Amino acid sequence: MTETSQAALLAAAAITVAAPLAGSAATALGFRRGKPRRFAAAVAAVSLLSSLVITAIWSQSDGTAVGFGDRLGGGRFVYIDGITAVLLPYVALIEMSILLVAPRRALGQSAVTRILFGAATTLALFLTSHPILLIVLWCATALSTWVSVRSTPGGMAAARVFAIAMTAATACMAVGTMLLLVDPPWSAAAGWVGATGGWLVAIAVMIRKGIFPFHSWYPSLFSGATMSTALAATMPQVASYTAVRLLIGHTDHPEGVAAELVVLSQMALVTATYGAALSIVQRDLRSLIGTLAMSQSAMVLAGLAGTLPMELNGAFCVWISSGLSLTGIGLVSWALESRAGPIRLDTPQGRFWDAPALAGFFLLFGLAGIGLPGTLSFVADDLIVSGSLDEQLHAGLLVILSTVLAGIAMMRGWFHVFGGPVDPNGTRHAILLRERVAMTVLLATLFLLGIWPGPLVRALDRATGRLLGVSAESTGEHAADGADSSEDLQLFSPER
Amino acid sequence: MNEHDLVSLLVVCQLAAPAATLALVGVPTLLGQPPSERSTSRIVGGGFATAFIAGLLTLAVLASRDFRPEIVHLGSWFSVGHHEATIELVADALSVPYVCFSAGLCGLVNAFASKYLHREPGFTRFFLLLAVFGTGMNLMVLAGSIDVLFAGWELLGISSTLLIGFYLERGNAVRAALRAFATYRVCDVGLLAAAVMVHRAVGSGDFNRLFGENWPHGTCLVPAATATIVSLLLVFAAMGKSAQVPFSGWLPQAMEGPTPSSAIFYGALSIHAGAYVLLRCEALLEQAPLARLALIVIGLGTALHANVVGRVQTDLKSMLAYASMTQAGLIFAEIGFGWRVIPLVHVISHAILRSLQILRSPSALHDRHELEAALGGHPGADRWALGRLLPEALQARIYRIALDRGFEEMVVGRLFVVPFLWLIERAATLERRWLALLGGDPGPGGGRS
């Protein structure tokens, strides 16, 4: 990559993070107090555009990772590789959609400040591989979510559950990372200190990702917090990214964390299936979204902890497809709730004729999350099922079972929200332009990536091949210099 | 333009025409500007007409060269390592007549529905779903690889579910739609697993690596063990879509949907989707006697079950649903016996007859009165001659079994559905208690704004 491109990447990365951070500070100081949405959405749009610039520059490059700033344990303050280039616009798009769809009463000055601050810290986390910075940003994102939940009327119970989970996760992450820095388990001479560190980081990832038996905070957050908080806290999947940077891709001595990855993978498979099964019997829409999010998030980790490039590729595709579709469903249900109150699922609620446009969007997002041909989830399911079955039969069967159950739960959700006797005195709710724009953009992304998945899958193939240090022949890539560049990704490598 | 290019263009037309109508109607609807009723039905009908004409032209080209198949390779959809999903279509003696038949039938139902559903609130939704169905059907029929076939198969399932639940305000329609979707979803596991197996066996999903292209005389190119496993998985998948025992309970309930969709789905095309897939993979079945035996047992079992149960139904649409099921069972058995052309002819003739019967069903009383007027009296009760040869006690017992629909739903429910739901309900209750303990307050519905 040329120096000019590197400079452009650095500038774009800075804008991606600085725009929401500056926006947050400005809002906190009272700038545009009357119309915070327009300002916040503009800031988020700038962030999204600059993240897309990173993706564009990256796609033209030779695929070598770029790092800037301090180097500790192999990590860099600013680190951009294929994974960052793919995931950064995804996170920025989610943040912008939340700001566009949020009902007016949920978007006061303090809420906008928190949302933009959360966006900035999340985006910054996706731009670093520095272990200390990762811990700091991990804490910042958790803290921002906790403050939001706490300030939600009636959200104290959820805030308490979240605080318990995040305190444990953050402690494990901080101690574990320090131990990894002291005694990297990827060194052949590593002792019990490094091994303990690996397990602590794995436990932290499990808690933050809501993996069984640490999953309870996930549906609780969706039930107790505002939708913006729940979506912003769960959809980017901060813990998955941390796992990628800290646990996966240590090719010089991969067995250093092999046991941790096996446990992560198996527990994630159990959680994916369990969450999907639970979602079938949920009694309100928010709990349904929470359990589905838990299941999909676990599915991502199950794939990431695999050893085959196809599994990792499938996991990244599930990451993006489930994230966008669940964000869409969350936003639709938020829009619906803001008009007609909480939505139960015990019996069909008959909301179709109240809000037919929202019903259409809900259906499309739902289908886009359960493998509708022509959407990214179809490709994602194909890859993750094939990859899992290639690795272990039981893993493949659990993934299939999980997708079957999630599909049934999703359709039950749609039919129970929109089906059923219609209230003749009900009000018909039109969809607002800003809602339609945000939802259409999310949907268009899902369909575009599903109909034309080649560029995304190729980019991920290259990134996962490098991450696993797989040779060109086995990933189907030509002229790969994966072995060299995979070294760039290894944190805590002994020679550093 | 050479012959290959011409056939390729026509095949793409058969697929693209209904898909384009989906975009033409769907995008404006999504943007809040749905086309008028007349425009909607014309656009969707135009798509089917185009596909039908393109199908006829392809048929003519194929007939002129003794039905030599043509593979249309549209490139790679995506690939990871050695796993490649290709977009490959096939024009041969099976797919092209079937596309003509399905596009023609869809076009006719489109014309019927444009009057039948006039001023119905869900008019645009119906035609959108019909376009999804048409696209899925053509995709499945023209598929030259199992990946493309699976994509079409999924579109059929989704459109079918949404049309069963078309009248969303009716509780029964919602329940029936969910039941059908759950059955489809469970049985789709078979096709998904078969697709993975095929990829593992031959490195891609292309049918021409599995068996020779010359339908119905293709030869199996994979070992017998692989052929048996893939065939059994395909049989499992087909059982759901074609309502074979023990996955048949959803079909009578599926008649909750609008009559035109019932006609095309459960009288004509969707009910035979399983049979089509099995016919497409006949060369694999040739090498899999176990799968053929399963087909015969399942098919004859379903035919017997549906025939007996259908006789005690008290509403016309349920009766027609069981009649469809009977024929689908017989077609399964025919495929199991190793016949190729007979089941295809059976599919097409049954589909035409049954869809006509279902389309006429709303006028059944009127027809009956006309018949009685013409005969000058009651035409007389149906007599099940063979049944009357049985001892009376056995007749009574069979009658009782038929009234309970062969206990199929009860057995499936008690053995699988109820225990599963009980288990996850218990788990959900424990989750709620655990959350209450952690948070000091019941979780669901706690806060939010």
Could you please describe the fold and organization of this structure?
- The complex is a heterodimer of chains A (496) and B (449).
- Chain A is mostly helical and 496 residues long.
- Chain A has one domain.
- Helices cover 71% and strands 3% of the residues of chain A.
- Chain A has helices at residues 3-28, 36-60, 82-101, 109-125, 131-150, 156-182, 192-208, 217-224, 227-234, 238-246, 258-280, 285-304, 309-340, 356-369, 376-391, 393-418, 433-451, 454-468, 472-475, 482-489; strands at 66-72, 75-80.
- A two-stranded antiparallel ribbon of chain A has the order 1-2.
- In chain A, helix 3 runs antiparallel to helix 4 (109-125), helix 7 (192-208) packs parallel to helix 11 (258-280) and helix 13 (309-340) packs across helix 15.
- Chain A is globular.
- The model of chain A is unreliable at 471-496 (pLDDT under 50).
- Chain B has 449 residues and is mainly alpha-helical.
- Chain B folds into 2 domains: 3-361, no CATH class; 407-438.
- Chain B has helices spanning 3-30, 37-64, 95-116, 123-142, 146-164, 171-202, 224-241, 250-253, 259-268, 273-280, 282-286, 289-310, 316-336, 341-360, 364-375, 385-388, 392-403, 408-439; strands at residues 70-80, 83-91.
- Chain B has a two-stranded antiparallel sheet.
- In chain B, helix 2 (37-64) runs antiparallel to helix 3 (95-116) and helix 7 runs parallel beside helix 12.
- Chain B is globular, with a radius of gyration of 23 Å.
- Chains A and B meet through helix 6, helix 8, helix 11, helix 13 and helix 14 of A and strand 1, helix 5, helix 6 and helix 18 of B.
Brief summary of the model shown:
The complex is a heterodimer of chains A (496) and B (449). In chain A, 71% of the residues lie in helices and 3% in strands.
Overall geometry of chain A: globular
The number of domains of chain A is 1
Strand order of the largest sheet of chain A: 1-2
Q: For the CA atoms, what is the radius of gyration of chain B?
A: 23 Å
Assign the structural class of chain A, choosing from mainly alpha, mainly beta, alpha/beta, alpha+beta, or little secondary structure: mainly alpha
What is the assembly state of the chains in this entry? heterodimer
**Treating each run of at least 4 consecutive H or I residues as one helix, how many helices of chain B?**
18
Structural class of chain B: mainly alpha
Percentage of helical residues of chain B? over 70%
> Based on CA inertia axes, which overall geometry of chain B fits?
globular
Strand residues, percent of chain B:
under 5%
Q: For the residues shown, what is the average pLDDT of chain A? A: 88
Which residues of chain A form runs of ≥5 with pLDDT under 50?
A: 471-496
Distance between the termini of chain A: 23 Å
